[in-house]
Amino acid sequence: MKDTNTTDITKVEEPSEHAQIKSIEELLKMPLTIPDYQRPYKWTTHNVSDLLDDIETAIEQSRHSHGSEGQADFKYRIGTIILHRNDQKYEIVDGQQRTTTLLLLRRYLMDESIDAQFIDIDLRNSATQANLAANYSFIRDWFSSKTSSRKDFLNAFSNVLEVVVITVEKLSEAFQLFDSQNSRGRAIDPPDLLKAYHLREMKDDLFNMQRAVIKWEARNPSEINTLFHDYLFPIIKWSDKNKWEPFTAQQIDIFKGSPVDSPYSYVARTRKAMPSFQITESFIAGGDFFSMVDYYLDMHRYLDNAIQEKSEFREINKIMNNSKWNESTGFKYAKTLFKCALLRYYDRFSNLDKHAVEKLFLWAFMLRVDMQNLSLTSVNRYSIGTDSTRATLYTNNLPMFSIIDHARTHTEISNLQITVEPKENGRWNNLYEALKNMTNNTIS
Fold first, then answer.
1. pTM higher than 0.85, yes or no?
2. Phi, then psi, of 160 in degrees rounded to 5
3. Which of 229, 307, 341, 365 is the most exposed place for a label (fewest CB within 10 A)?
């Protein structure tokens, strides 16, 4: 079972000196609050079902371990919660989705409605309201179809289920713990870690912190992940002539930006440039990170629409949407390669010169023609312009991202010589013919 903010239900490490083990009942009786920078309540009935099933399993295990009268001796650990003590309340930094659901479950078990504000949470958010109502109804229906009693669950809250509660006095320490907890525990999407890092950099600007969270949550999470995994990260790696590997938590430093108060001269230049962005250049940590994500999400969507809708790119769009060719993983690699090159080109020159776009397209898709079996290894070699003996495998062995990075004008791209002539005939002859129709073997 997955929680959007905590580790899985499991036996966890012994708590550090900053931690306490509490029963779920003890945790839920604390004056908990959801800070403004947190995301809305998004757990679905599927998440709730998993949680209820896990609690039911814990109750059964406690009975089998010590008999029906020995539940107090059996403990079932439910992850870790990170709290920030703020005056007389405790802000949930990590674990708010599960904790909110446990509070919702407790209200049902106590035969209380959810009309009253059962936790200090922003109920103005429509998604939060809808999910709370749907999940409360699901909990009621779940118990009506089970033999498990409310009494068993309430007893488990006090005597079986426990959680490691880490409480810190400083918000910055809470975010640091959030980073370390998630890097040691379940795999968490690197963009979520970056979100936490840059929110920490905004700790003295709560108004803009809240605005950043609202804008972030309005975006589709899969779009944000795709932006980093498939576009921004590989573009940076290839521009430096380095190979692209999967984007993980170990590589997030590349997107941490520069502290606003850094004394370095290059940071002073970056401060003056904001909010203008370049994928391969640094930015100011904090709010500019969220502006950057918005900027490139919008740019990526604009470029996709332009290729689909502009008449001068009709042939490109037709090739990219060929249903048969799209069954090939290698063809999809070529599409991503083109989209990366186009994003970097537009990022630098802010135009869609027809000849430049065609050169980028032909360069990317000739790799699919050249290689009968196209792997990520070949994509890496091709993108950085390998100087190994394998360079002879490619019709166009150009370090395209480095070329774009060093080009002073867009005409340096539109004037590139891209050869459309495969090294040997193969099963991608039809693609070759389609590319050839866009040009006459060599365009310059």
1. no
2. -120, -50
3. 229
